[in-house]
Input
Amino acid sequence: MTTTSRRPLVIDLDGTLVLTDTLHEQALALIKARPWHGLLLPVWLRHGKANLKQELAGRVVLDAGTLPYNTELLDWLRQEKAAGRTLVLCTAADQHTAQAIAQHLGIFDEVLASDGETNLSASRKADRLIQQFGPQGFDYAGNSQDDLPVWRAAHRAIVVNASASTLDTARQHGNVDKVVPALNPPMRHITKMMRMHQWLKNLLLFVPLLAAHQLTNAAAWGTVLLAFFSFSLCASAVYIGNDLLDLNSDRLHPRKRLRPFASGRVPVAWGVAIAPLLLIVSFGLAWAVGPSFLAWLVVYFLLTSWYSVSLKRLVLLDCMTLAGLYTLRILAGGAAADLQVSHWLLAVSGFLFLSLSLLKRHTELHTLIQRGETATTAAPGRGYVTQDIALVQALGIAAGYASAVVLALYLHGETVQALYAWPEAILASVSVLVYWISWLWLKSHRGEMHDDPLIFSVKDRTSLACGAAFVASLAMATVGSPW
Output
């Protein structure tokens, strides 16, 4: 195809121009804003898919400026437009949605879309285009099996972001003129979708075993390992739900916009289907571990779901909730191993996790400031504004040092004298903790901290050295003095 061709170029929307499905996103947005309206979806669908799309479009307006566009295709379309080509957006999405996107992009001469009665897809789309432009009177860019009838009716086919099987079928007709390569298959992004790197946080379930010196209790370790996978699958289900509800705010974030759902790498429908399955398996494993652990897992699920829906938007309470969720993992680990968790351990953990939660918010605010935002700019999806950064920093450092103070007080108690052969050696862990907390906050102050302190810590040499020194002090205290 040459850019001098005057034949209209018709472009599909969902999966082609945008790397997502606008219908699915509107349904999610509606359920997020008014959950009870989810009961109306089947009612609307009974009157046809076009009616469902119209009902959703009338209630949910997607932000066309944040949608994940296929940048390679969009760049080419702009070149074609500059060369005088007529561009037509033709989609099965509702006309209100299509018009909003077309208006935002400003490159389309005409928009054809579903109108509440006719769902403009597959053969219906082909018939409409033939009626308007004549047989083979247009070129067409699409991505799915539904586009096969349209490609057959077109003069030239442009295959965009399609599966290998769809591309092979399209080529059988012999008119494929251009191929815009597909993104990486969604399966490659499954681990990112489940945030499996976040499973590291669930190693906290093993802390009660270590604190109680149950290193040789194989049965307890096996039970806690089962609890670890149960907790991790539950956490992944909640992460998926959180990402689905936060699509718009994630797309406004410089790094979160690359998450699987926000970037369109994984269809939102996958998340809706996979999250419940993960929960079923998670609670099945928890039932096998025992009722006490299952109870803590239910509390975690309810609290983290509440956090995802609303608590994360409440200033300070969001960080306190995050700290509580971290500490809850230790309680759940104690329940799985049938061990009593020390109040000292909970206090040290609570203050430390509060510091890390505030560190996460400090990093987000620092990123906004680096981008040149004003003092009253709000962090996307959060209740903080950039001018809060100094207070967040002060509170976070104070909480971190408070954890070190509580640890120092605990080390002077009778329990430590009974548990450790050389209690004095464990005092070094207090210095290590103070240094590590100070180091993290220094890196955040310099703008060198990752969005997630956990990810930063497992990759940062200084943090890893601090962890090794902390473990070494505990080991020396347990083994005893070498002299």
About this structure: The chain has three domains: 9-183, 186-341, 355-483.
